[in-house]
Amino acid sequence: MTNKAMLNNFKTEDAYVIILAAGKGSRMGAAENKVFLPLGDATVLNHTCLAFEDLAEIKAYIVCAAPAEMERVKKLLPEDKYSKLLAVVPGGDSRTESVRAGIDWLSAQDIPSSSKILIHDGARALVPPDVILRCLTALEQEVCAVAAAIPVTDTIRQIDRHGWINSSPDRELLRAMQTPQGARLNLLRESLSAPQNEKCRASDDLDLLRQIGCPVRLVQGDTINIKITTKIDLYLAEILINERP
């Protein structure tokens, strides 16, 4: 599935999004991938894609899905409603491998190497437009990677492997990471091909970028931008979706 008309008009300043939807619902205790769970009048994935579909600053996006679920994703995202969807591409067994698949696919379309690329969790269906715009602005103003994050409000203790507290980090210096995260296409490509990262299974995209010396700028995220991972997350997301105007 490829939106061929869009492939003919790439520009250097364009912004693209890789939506990661190849995960499983193990922590949710669900029998299926959490992006397929109902949320409001659609699914989690529908709401995630619409967040970027409705934003003029986003040129296009792709969805990385589990190979066995690609047809289901395509049916959920018809072209007449999701006109910015370039393609549904097969993801990997880990987040890093799915990101790699997305970057490889975009690179094969001759997208300019300086294009802005955002990577977003498919399960973050409530991402506000201003969070996305802050990420794009940071990429335009600085040669760096960028990510959304929010301050930590709880007291955090670091423990040893036996459960004893061994330090108390200053929470003023701590941030809870969110997505979008991103960088220019050339930097993401370099981070994924670096020898030290070839077998890395990073928890997010910033680990790989920092390994090649790329500084990371954090921008203000939003507490509403939750990752729907547990049943309570889904319950909260349902309330928040229903409160939207």
Listing every helix as H and every strand as E from the N terminus to the C terminus, the arrangement reads EEEHEHEHEHEEEEHHEH
The level-1 CATH class: Alpha Beta
Q: How many individual domains? A: 1
Helix content: 25-40%
Amount of beta strand: 15-25%
Q: Provide the spatial order of strands within the biggest beta sheet.
A: 5-4-1-6-10-7-11
Radius of gyration: 18 Å
The DSSP helix count reads: 7
CATH topology name: Spore Coat Polysaccharide Biosynthesis Protein SpsA, Chain A
Shape: globular
CATH superfamily (homologous) name = Spore Coat Polysaccharide Biosynthesis Protein SpsA, Chain A
CATH architecture: Alpha-Beta Complex
Low-pLDDT regions: none
Q: What's the total number of strands? A: 11
Please summarize the sheet with the most strands: 7 strands, mixed
Mean pLDDT, rounded to whole units?
A: 90
Oligomer type: single chain
Distance between the termini: 33 Å
Structural class, by secondary structure, is alpha/beta
Describe it.
With 245 residues, the protein is α/β, with parallel strands linked by helices. It has a single domain, classed as Spore Coat Polysaccharide Biosynthesis Protein SpsA, Chain A (Alpha-Beta Complex). Helices cover 29% and strands 23% of the residues. It is built from seven helices and eleven strands. It has helices spanning 44-53, 70-76, 95-108, 129-141, 185-193, 205-211, 231-242, and strands at residues 15-21, 38-39, 42-43, 60-65, 85-90, 116-121, 145-151, 158-159, 165-167, 175-184, 216-220. A seven-stranded mixed sheet has the order 5-4-1-6-10-7-11, with helices on both faces. The chain has a two-stranded antiparallel ribbon with strand order 2-3. Strands 8-9 form a two-stranded antiparallel ribbon. The longest helix has 14 residues, at 95-108. It is globular and about 55 Å long. The model has no long low-confidence stretch (mean pLDDT 90).
